Amino acid sequence: MFRVRWEDQALSELTTGWLQGDPTQRQAITGASHQVDLVLSRDPHNTGESRSGRRRIMFVPPLAVSFCVEADGNTVSVLQVRVFRHGP
What we know:
The protein is of the alpha+beta class. It has one domain (3-83): 2-Layer Sandwich (YaeB-like fold), CATH 3.30.2310. The chain is 38% helix and 32% strand. It contains 2 helices and 5 strands. The chain has helices at 8-20, 23-42, and strands at 3-6, 49-50, 55-60, 63-69, 75-83. The chain has a 5-stranded mixed β-sheet with strand order 1-5-4-3-2. The mean pLDDT is 95.
């Protein structure tokens, strides 16, 4: 199991997206963030798509999450979060 650590910037982005959402969006964001924790704690090396360096990105609608496995090999850092919405 990996320890998942959310950077301050990622927490701020997640909070902003949640505060801007309606009740349905807030529920989806909360559920997706829990899913991110679960997936990253189990197998971050095979999750999402690779990016430059050690960075990876995963999509758990309505979230896009940038993360990396730290050099200690036990910690996953969530670096950035973007909330995306469908529709007008």
